Amino acid sequence: MLLYIYLIAITAEAMSGALAAGRRNMDLFGVSLIAFVTALGGGTVRDMLLGNYPVSWTQHPSYIYLTIGAGLFTMLVARFIHHLHTLFLILDAMGLVAFTVIGCDVALRLEYDTPVVVMAGITTGIFGGILRDILCNRTPMVLLHELYASVSLLVALLYLGLMELGVDHDINLLASFSAGLALRLAAIRWSLSLPVFSYAPGRWDD
Amino acid sequence: MLLYIYLIAITAEAMSGALAAGRRNMDLFGVSLIAFVTALGGGTVRDMLLGNYPVSWTQHPSYIYLTIGAGLFTMLVARFIHHLHTLFLILDAMGLVAFTVIGCDVALRLEYDTPVVVMAGITTGIFGGILRDILCNRTPMVLLHELYASVSLLVALLYLGLMELGVDHDINLLASFSAGLALRLAAIRWSLSLPVFSYAPGRWDD
Amino acid sequence: MLLYIYLIAITAEAMSGALAAGRRNMDLFGVSLIAFVTALGGGTVRDMLLGNYPVSWTQHPSYIYLTIGAGLFTMLVARFIHHLHTLFLILDAMGLVAFTVIGCDVALRLEYDTPVVVMAGITTGIFGGILRDILCNRTPMVLLHELYASVSLLVALLYLGLMELGVDHDINLLASFSAGLALRLAAIRWSLSLPVFSYAPGRWDD
Q1: ipTM
Q2: Cis peptide before B140 (omega within 30 of 0)
Q3: What does the CA dihedral C46, B53, B18, B80 come to, rounded to 10 degrees?
Q4: Chains with 3 or more CB pairs closer than 8 angstroms to A?
Q5: Tens of pLDDT along C28-47?
Q6: In chain B, what residues touch C24 (CB-CB under 8 Å)?
Q7: B82 touches chain A (CB under 8 A)
């Protein structure tokens, strides 16, 4: 079940990467690379942080084909994609939540402390998008806009909290998933956001 | 002793990260992440380069709370922070020097060659700031301005040189620390800098 | 033989890094660091991805001196370098091809699957340039322009294909090398490029 959601998620993330690459007028190769990095970069950074070798996708070459294929497919259908706007946002939200849970599971298996498990979940959830934005030379959107990264944090805390309380794993998954998805979709619908910190550069560090 | 300086240092670095995030109008989450990465990113890159697993901060979850707490605290006191300008620069300089020495020690313990030990010291000293600037989509300041990264290089060379000469470790620490701090503060006071390389793009690679 | 080409390659890459740093008016230290990262960053990212510790250059400190030396030397001769334009592009193309083959060899030795071997070759070939461009705060050129990254892909596929067919290793090296070099030089000469994906930002994700 989580596997299917994961496959949908990396496909959606690859497509979002391809669109970002298209906004930078990248070539076929650039589109493929950004699609791949957006989809699998979060898990890669997590594995490298935790010393979890071999890195996950190197054991599943089919993920490489899937994400690059999704990126190239996006080039073909880009002109129609705004009709799929809502679907796309839902898939992306599912990806965020699924990545977070999977990231927590990896760190739990390696017996890291709880705060590190939370960081691993968030890293898996948001670092693909951060790498995408760095490669496209723009400030990472997940640090700027709406409730996005915070959804990842909430999912990680809820998932670990319910686990601690001894809740059945399937029910836990369902609850964490639903709560995360609901919060993310509510954030999109009503433009929920965290307080923003605006600091005007002063004399002291310019 | 080095531990206390280290704790002060990561706090100061986290605050500098939070201010940079504020200049990009990031939200609470973005501020926390940039604070964390600025403070602990240098050591993380060093550990990943050297294969020093588990990465240091994953064994000290309190560092996560400390750096994120410092980042959020900075949001509250940002309007007063220019009054603390001098204190802040001194804390940052202490951080640079402490990080460098600690980075060298990690590589020495893993028995890397001297040039790698120096690189590990510099990486620990400056990569937090480089990651902060990459995440804020600006050219890394440490590669542009004043004697900053060079202070890290000098401290690493002095520390290893005195060690080679058999100088007592505490005296070595004190000497390296004082020299690095003095050079950094002198660089700020008199705007010391290295020669700059300005290359105007020619036809050949545009 | 491959070693000599490799040494020429990292020198050429270090010089291209130094020129990019010069365009950002970096100081001596910035130039050295960018030269080092451009030359050895691709192999470093590959080693960290594959868990191939210790990272290659940490076992060859002379590479540190060579790349930093090449960077500083570039500062001295920058005003004459446009006369060497053609030579420089050839050296850079040799570097791209040599890095790719070396990257494949490392992943083969670690017994990764073929698609991962190809990714390791490409990573080694192009990530030094990507890191250079990220540190200089610009969109990575290899994802935008001409046949460059694609040459790396072709070389990796040809090299592994001929290996699969049981072709003698020296002949394989010669063939992959010649084909890659020829394609890259043809791409420069006739401005060959892949199709570009241009996506204008729509309402849906702005």
Answers
A1: 0.88
A2: no
A3: -150
A4: B, C
A5: 999 999 999 999 999 999 99
A6: 139, 143-144
A7: yes
